[in-house]
Amino acid sequence: MATMAGRLVARTSSSSAKRQRFSSAVLLLALFQSSWCYDDAAATTTVDYGYNNEHEADRVAFLPGQPRSPPVSQFAGYVTVNERNGRALFYWFFEAQTSPAHKPLLLWLNGGPGCSSVGYGAASELGPLRVNRHGAGLEFNNFAWNKEANLLFLESPAGVGFSYTNTSSDLTKLDDAFLKMHTAS
Questions:
Q1: What does the H/E/C string look like for the chain?
Q2: How far apart are CA 91 and CA 185, in angstroms?
Q3: Pfam families, from UniProt (predicted)?
Q4: Which residues contact 140 (CB under 8 A, 6 or more apart)?
Q5: How many Cβ atoms are within 10 Å of 49's Cβ, its own excluded?
Q6: What's the CA gap between 57 and 42, in Å, rounded?
Q7: CATH 3.90.1150.10 is right for the domain spanning 56-173
Q8: What is the pLDDT of residue 24?
Q9: How far apart are CA 45 and CA 148, in angstroms?
Q10: Alpha-carbon distance 145 to 86, whole Å?
Q11: Each residue of 120-164: pLDDT tens digit?
C-alpha cells in the first residue's frame, strides 16, 4: 500500500501489473475518502511511461487556451465508488514534470460540500495550469507542486464539481450528515 501511495506506477515489465496498481491506487484513495462522506451499504499506442490503452483513454492531450510550453502530462476521468447508486468521483491527475515514476503521489482534497478540488486546488492554488486574469485562457503556474510530485485532485463528495450521483437521496444524506456534524455542541 505504501508503495502504491508513494509512487505513481512502479516500473515493471508487465503492463497488466502497472494498470492494476494505477487503478487500485486511484480506487483505494477514492473509496477511503468517500467513506468519510457516507455511511451506506482511446489511444492505441504505449507511451514512454508504459501506460496502456486504458490509461491513454483518460489522457488529456491539450485544453483550449493551454500554453504549449512547458508540456503538461495530464489525465482526467471518473472512479466509480458506488455502482448501485451510480456514484462516481471525478479526478484530474498531473504527472510530475520530471521523473514521474520516481516522485511521490500527492492526493489533494479541498473537502466539503461546495468546495471543488479542481476549481480551487488545481486551477487556483497548486496545479500546473491556472485561468489567466482575463478569463480568456490558461497560464502556467510557476509555483506548481507537480515540479516535485505527481498530483491527484479528487472532486469529493459526489455532487461537488464534476463528481456525480444518480441517487438524489445521496445528496440530502450528505447535507444532513454535514449539518449534524457542524451544528452539534
A1: CHHHHHCCCCCCCCHHHHHHHHHHHHHHHHHHHHCCCCCCCCCCCCCCCCCCHHHHCCEECCCCCCCCCCCCCEEEEEEEEECCCCEEEEEEEECCCCCHHHCCEEEECCCCCCCCHHHHHHHHHCCCEEECCCCCCEEECCCCHHHCCEEEEECCCCCCCCCECCCHHHHHHHHHHHHHHHHCC
A2: 35
A3: Peptidase_S10
A4: 67, 69, 70, 72, 128, 129, 130
A5: 14
A6: 4
A7: no
A8: 44
A9: 27
A10: 32
A11: 889 889 999 998 888 888 999 999 999 999 999 999 888 888 888
pLDDT tens per residue, range 79-95: 999 898 888 999 999 99
- The CB density around residue 18, as the number of other CB atoms within 10 Å, is 21
The model's confidence at residue 30, banded by pLDDT at 50, 70 and 90, is very low
Cell of 94: 498531473
Instruction: Delimit the domains of the chain by residue range.
Output: 56-173
Find how far residue 24's CA is from the centre of its chain: 13
